[in-house]
Amino acid sequence: MKNRFKNILVLIIIACGFWYIIQYEGLRLKGIDFSLKGNKLELNQKDKLVNKNNINANTALVLVNSEYGLDKNYEPKDLTIPSISFASGVNEEERHVAGIIIKPLEELVSTAKAEGIILIGNSGYRSYKSQKNTYSSRVKSEGEKLADAYVAKPGFSEHQTGLCIDITNKDRYFVKGTKEADWLAKNCYRFGFIIRYPYGKKNITGIEYEPWHIRYVGKEAAKYIYDNKITLEEYLEK
Ligand SMILES: [Zn+2]
């Protein structure tokens, strides 16, 4: 009888220990980025200061890919239309980008112009809602398998961060070898941008080469990524 009582007491003590650890872990996560964790956005160590209420320079390093998505309510801070030219037919929403990239983007486009290169905006911010519409109409017309191959599932497009924009040229033919694409690849790091989906890196980024899609990460990260010919995924893991 005495022994059984002892055993029960030991079990209670162990259970209390576990309970304490779980509570402590929960609080620790809350202190860092609970709101985003709660919304399924797993943040990298480097991004732990980022959350909805504390948008700062670290936001530029948030990772969104097929593994890490954004909540349906996530909207970038200070969505604004930059003073650059847009291709005809670009809708109102996609002319917007996050406030943090307005200045670097305008500087990039005006510097390019001064160097004889005309860059045109094609697609910036895409809300969760419009991603959902695009995805479901693609599923309807082509089936889920093909839709998954070409369109991000809602919440998994980097365009929802407002930190990236697709660039084009006046011919709407933005491929490697055109002077505009080559200029962008060589110079965007100077303004804090990277070619987010470089050639030959699909195994890491999950996305085919896209010479037109530039992503703001800040000047320091952009230079490192450019110099070392790596991706954002590799940079965040280093
Ligand atoms: Zn894009």
From TrEMBL:
CDD domains: LD-carboxypeptidase. It comes from the Bacteria. The keyword Hydrolase applies. Residues 100-219 form the D-alanyl-D-alanine carboxypeptidase-like core domain. One of its GO terms (biological process) is proteolysis. GO terms for molecular function: carboxypeptidase activity. Pfam families: VanY. Keywords: Carboxypeptidase, Hydrolase, Protease. This is D-alanyl-D-alanine carboxypeptidase family protein. It comes from Clostridium scatologenes.
